[in-house]
Design goal:
Elements: E1 3-7, E2 13-20, E3 27-31, H1 42-48, E4 53-58, H2 74-91, E5 99-103, H3 105-116, E6 123-127, H4 144-149, E7 155-156, H5 159-167, H6 177-187, E8 188-190, E9 200-202, H7 206-214, H8 221-224, E10 232-236, H9 244-256, E11 260-264, H10 272-275, H11 277-287
Parallel strand pairs: 3-4, 3-5, 5-6, 6-10, 10-11
Antiparallel strand pairs: 1-2, 2-4, 7-9, 8-9
Amino acid sequence: MTVHLVTSSDDVRVALHHLAPGPASSPLLIAHATGFNAPAYRPLAEALADRFDVWGVDVRGHGLTPPAAGDVDWNRYGDDTLAAAAWLSEQAPDATALVGFGHSMGGTAMLMAADRRPDIFRALALYEPIVFDPAEATADRPNPLADGAVRRRREFPSARAAIENFASKPPMRSFDPEALRGYVTGGTTPVDPSDPEGPVRLSCSPELESATFRNSLGHGTWNRLPAIATPTVVIGGAPEGVNAGPAMIAPTIAERLASGTYELHPELDHFGPFTHPGKTAAIVSASVPR
């Protein structure tokens, strides 16, 4: 799999993966959820490759892209996504052809990129983006995702051991096996570079993942939604369960966008792109006009 490096803000070199070759005239960029990485979306990308040339970005602190100094700021994830989109758009035969797919945090990063460069995407398909009304936030609001992430195990005896560990626990035990494999192989590095078969460490540290969850209300995208004119389909799964928040807010995000529509798919949950990559790909393909 080809990986290009593009320069983003703070001189961060962002990894851009060519996930699944398809028609060069129809590039599609995937932006990942918190704690994940582009290779985790390879099954989704392969299911889209009959129509799109599919790429995926690792934002800073995830996958192959190193973290930057300073506090975690979701706007910098938007910088990284825009840098990848700009490079990809420049390579396409038609500079107006680019489509964006964003999952969770990646959906927010796509909205930020479209807000800053209204010409960069011809369409967006966003799976439960994280854009909450800041007026509803309180300083003492519980954040179980942030609390859980900081306790995450960071090292494993081998990549195989990491796969076996995640495959035994929810929600990852329901993932497509290749999505899980991509999450591990794309999201870990050898503790000792001279021993690639030995212990591995998560590329996205528990502290960075926790800080990303904790800072999810302060990026300002909610107030910018009415100004984003890119045709956008907001996809939502069942608005229930542990990760119900993003599904519950998805209809309102679509309503606030200048050109947004909402699609409910109650058979899916927040991890639909990993548990049902083929189904998700069909939804995305049908939502984007030819």
